[in-house]
UniProtKB/TrEMBL annotation:
Pfam families: Methyltransf_23. Keywords: Methyltransferase, Transferase. The keyword Ubl conjugation does not apply. This is Methyltransferase domain-containing protein. GO terms for molecular function: methyltransferase activity. It comes from Nitrosospira multiformis. It comes from the Bacteria. SUPFAM superfamilies: S-adenosyl-L-methionine-dependent methyltransferases.
Length: 309
């Protein structure tokens, strides 16, 4: 935990601050040097990555409680916004394949890459489709069915330094997986969702509140670093912003979005909470044990329309 090993803390802070400045001033170089994909630190094969995207796609509709046979009817003609698609918009491809009219992908970092590996991933996704779904997916590329040709307007990949779309009432579904825990401004991100969505449309998110490898021994000890120091070390890298579930509730309430569903996917053990409690940084000290325990969650939000009078 922070403060128990001052020399180790200083070494880690210096290294992190230097690399954070690199991410701030040369984000493309930072991405190249760190090899970020948006799917975590582990190296995956094209086959594993393709299956990851299929799992993500399935999970969204499991959360929404939409049966497989009803997915195309639900997506038909809809415009989708995805926050943090990573280096290849595999979920976006599957959304269009199953009926979506278009997908807009928003990222803070220029991760998109038509590398041989990513081309193979998209080819594997195409091979897993058949019939109309395959034909719709093939239309996502400049040359029909050729991922190496680049993406057609059906899938737009936009890089925004603040990670916000800036859209106004143009999308019918907002999605993200393990992204919201990385955003710089959670209140602004939920406000962006509200503005981007059409009335009575939905947002579905899977959020990972773990340390992403930045803890030492206790899974919650990354919450002991002072807020100002964490910002200097990690403010521009897109690593966890550390906000807990209570803060998400506040940001959702402020945005005007209605919370339809929220449940934890992983909980910390009581002994880990007790061990870290006395060492927590200021923003986390008054959070209840119940809220501190949330290490991941899923939620569904809705932008309510104006009722006719």
């Amino acid at each position: 935990m922070y403060g128990q090993n001052p020399i180790d803390d200083a070494k880690r802070a210096i290294r992190a601050i230097v690399t954070d400045q690199l991410a701030h001033w040369a984000p493309s170089l930072y991405v190249k040097l760190t090899g970020q994909t948006g799917r975590g630190a582990q190296e995956d094969s094209p086959l594993e990555a393709a299956q990851y995207f299929r799992n993500c796609f399935k999970d969204y509709f499991d959360i929404l409680q939409i049966e497989r046979e009803n997915i195309t009817a639900f997506l038909s003609g809809r415009h989708v916004l995805e926050y943090g698609p990573g280096d290849v918009p595999g979920v976006g491809l599957l959304m269009v394949a199953h009926g979506a009219e278009s997908v807009i992908c928003i990222d803070r970092f220029p991760l998109l890459a038509l590398s041989p590996k990513n081309i193979e991933i998209m080819e594997l996704l195409l091979e897993s489709l058949s019939g109309d779904a395959r034909l719709r997916a093939e239309d996502c590329f400049l040359i029909k069915g050729k991922p190496s040709s680049g993406f057609s307007p059906r899938i737009r990949y936009l890089v925004r330094p603040n990670g916000l779309s800036g859209l106004r009432g143009t999308v019918d579904l907002v999605i993200s997986r393990a992204v919201l825990e990385h955003v710089n401004d959670l209140f602004a991100t939920f406000a962006d969702m509200h503005e981007a969505l059409r009335d009575n449309c939905l947002a579905v998110h899977d959020v990972d509140l773990k340390s992403h490898g930045l803890h030492r021994k206790n899974p919650l000890d990354f919450l002991t670093w002072p807020l100002y120091l964490w910002a200097w070390m990690y403010g521009h890298k897109g690593v966890p912003n550390r906000w807990r579930i209570n803060y998400y509730r506040e940001a959702i309430s402020a945005s005007g979005l209605e919370l339809l569903l929220m449940y934890p996917t992983l909980l910390a053990e009581e002994k880990d909470i007790a061990e870290v409690r006395a060492h927590l940084a200021l923003p986390f000290r008054n959070i209840s044990d119940e809220d501190l325990a949330w290490l991941g969650f899923r939620m569904v939000l809705q932008k309510k329309g104006v009722e006719n009078t």
